[in-house]
Amino acid sequence: MGGRALRLPVPMSLLGDRAYRRVWTIGGLTWVTRASDIVVTGIFVYDVTGLAGTVAMVAFLRFLPMVAGAVSGALAARAPLPLVLRGLLITVGIVYATLAALAAAGLLEVWHVGLGAFLIGIYWSAENSVRRTLLGEIAGHERISAAIGLDWAAINAVRLIGPLAGAAIYAAWGMGAWYGACALFYALAAVLALGVSVPAAEPPGRGLHLLTELIEDLRAAMLHPVTAGILAVTLCMNFFTFPYISMVPVIGKETLGATPLQVGMMATVESIGAVLGGFAVASVAKPRLFGPIFLIGSLTTTLSALALGSSAVYALSLAALFAAGLGVAFFATMQSTLVLSNAPPERRARTMGLLTSSIGIGQSGIIVLGAVAGWLGTGNALVLFAAVGFGLLLACAARWPAMWRSGA
After folding, report:
1. CA 295/CA 48 separation, integer angstroms
2. 3-class state of residue 2 by DSSP
3. Mean pLDDT throughout 73-102?
4. Hey, how many other C-beta atoms are within 10 angstroms of the C-beta on 230?
């Protein structure tokens, strides 16, 4: 009797793919620096200035380049993605090495940190268009959801350890040691990128003026019923829902009377939910479920943010954050999966750039929420934002039904 070939589960088959494994590991190396660098630079800037506003400004500089994500996507599409990835990783490594040298020489100032944050943010403005698009290219049409799910699971796993490790290095050896560690991580990532290659499609419109390309990309996205809905939901989520993350320390201290360790546990529980959600999507998601999972993730995260703002009980707040983490994993995995699945291969990097711009523009919600919190109180402001966001998500679901009915 003939034997049947053993088929590995999709996540395991992906990790057995050398090119995927390299790009996936690059994501872990770069995201662990991002998760911890935000914390460490915040501590340093506050130690030097004592001004929370300056800390917020440096953090904002890191996210500011994401507004131009569409430009990054259009530029990335003009060259082979592996080549672009190598160039970006080497550039960021040089930035970190320069900052490490300044710190070691005792010359590091706050404006250096702010400028460095902005330059490093340019890499993150292109991450969706370059590294995550590469994951989709390597995985192929049938494995995109597993590829993105595994990626987000890894990202959320390093979020568990990155901030603590970064703070420990800073406390023990100072800012120079931490910047040096970041430079080393990016050097390792660049070495991994040397072995990555995928067939490159000739992008349509090569040679067109950049502005013309951007207009064409936006027009094509707005005419596509799935992509347009995803971009609209992304704006809503980033403006009204995801600012809850910035309010976790405030709610923990002011509303719940939590200790610093308990506040840290709140962030950890959210990350645990996101890790489990990412693995769940990578393991079981079927194409016909992609759209429903995206919608469920969006609504679950927003309702969890509303519950967090309403809660005055620590255990209930932990439960809300765990549910929010699950929702974030469902949302984020399907967000990239649906964009990559519905965009033509030659336009994927540029459409992912539009997605990054939507994320960057939505970041302004953090500033607005902070202002409203000063007026209504943190919990009430969070409830208001989440309620408005929930209503807008339902409106998006009604306006673009193809989005949540869509599969790859």
Report:
1. 43
2. coil
3. 89
4. 30
DSSP output for 14-67? HHT-HHHHHHHHHHHHHHHHHHHHHHHHHHHHHHHH--HHHHHHHHHHHHGGGG
Those residues with Cβ within 8 angstroms of residue 181's Cβ, 6 or more apart along the chain or in another chain: 33, 169
Does residue 241 carry a pLDDT above 80?
yes
Q: How confident is the model at residue 147 (pLDDT cuts 50, 70, 90)?
A: confident
Q: In whole angstroms, give the CA distance from residue 145 to residue 289.
A: 10
From the number of C-beta atoms within 10 Å of its C-beta (0-12, 13-18, 19+), residue 377 rates as middle
Residue, of 392 and 357, whose pLDDT is higher: 392
What pLDDT, on the 0 to 100 scale, is given for residue 56? 66
Torsion of CA 276, 278, 282, 288, to 10 degrees: 110
CB 92 within 8 A of CB 186: yes
**Cα separation of 96 and 89, whole Å?**
11
- DSSP per-residue letters across 68-118: GHHHHHHHHTTS-HHHHHHHHHHHHHHHHHHHHHHHHTT---HHHHHHHHH
The neighbour count for residue 83, using CB atoms within 10 Å, is: 15
Residues 6+ apart with CB under 8 A from 370: 246
Query: How far is the C-alpha of 341 from the C-alpha of 26, rounded, in Å?
Result: 22
pLDDT score at 113? 94
CA atoms within 13 A on the CB side of 31: 21
Q: Give me the pLDDT at residue 324, please.
A: 94
Which residue in the block uniquely carries the two structure tokens 């960021």? 92
The answer on pLDDT for 84 being more than 50 is yes
**What's the chain's length in residues?**
408
